[in-house]
Amino acid sequence: MLIKKADEIKSNEITEEKHYFNRRNFLRGAILIGTATATGTLYRTLNAPNKKASGSFTSQDFAKANYTLPQGEKATDFADITNYNNYYEFSTDKQEVASASKNFITHPWSISVEGLVHKPHVFDLDDLLKIAPLEDRIYRHRCVEAWSMVIPWFGFPLGKLLEQVQPMADAKYVQFTTLFDPKQMPNQNSGILDWPYKEGLRLDEAMHPLTILAAGIYGKKLLPQNGAPLRLVVPWKYGFKGCKSIVKIELTVKQPETTWNMANRDEYGFYSNVNPTVDHPRWSQATERRIGEFGLRKTLMFNGYADQVGNLYSGMDLAVNF
Q: Is 11-313 assigned to CATH 3.40.350.10?
């Protein structure tokens, strides 16, 4: 169903020196800054991604589907969705992730759901996908670097899984941990981030029906570069919140640490809701570049899902709780 529902840049011009208090953090920061700045520059100058990147696919490989949002926005081309990816476990080069991940093994797979639950359980992937019917969902996807896509996922609500394990009354947050396997994920041998990758949501965000675990894209099984075999999709948040290749889900009483927040707390907040009024320290979030289009779009509050999720943040200062 359709759900309606950088040129030379001095380091002190980018991030305050206090964030790089040791050599490891300095090197990590330099890499992250270079990657993010290059991406921002690329899309602010309106250059489209190279559809002939390594490991490329074309839409002709799959049955055509008329995926559109009610507002008339069409799904981003399959070649772009599968060849322009943020997945630092494989590469910081968005156009190299597909080739770097092509031999990634996604079956067999299991996910442990534990912590403050009455029925902790290790789910085999095949059984996990039977918890709820897989649904077609077309969502806007907004990256913190100010580019966006419209992606046809299929998956099931995360809340259906959490209902199976019965959260305890004092559970307030959900932490996600992704696979740590440097042999398969070569960039985990680097110190660019603290591995394994971790993300988190408030429990009410996790239980919201728009929050899904995606197992496929464009009507086909999820590809490695897009987070196979199972990834989190939270459409009103910036893309890095959607952690990939999940192996553990843990319910906690305290707000969990998350990878990008640990890497730079001033730039990547725990909530990371799409918000055009709160700029990233190095660029505006008021506009975005839709992949496959020319020109800029105005960024929508909560990525266009304000009617569905705005009540989750009633009374909160969204500039402080960014």
A: no
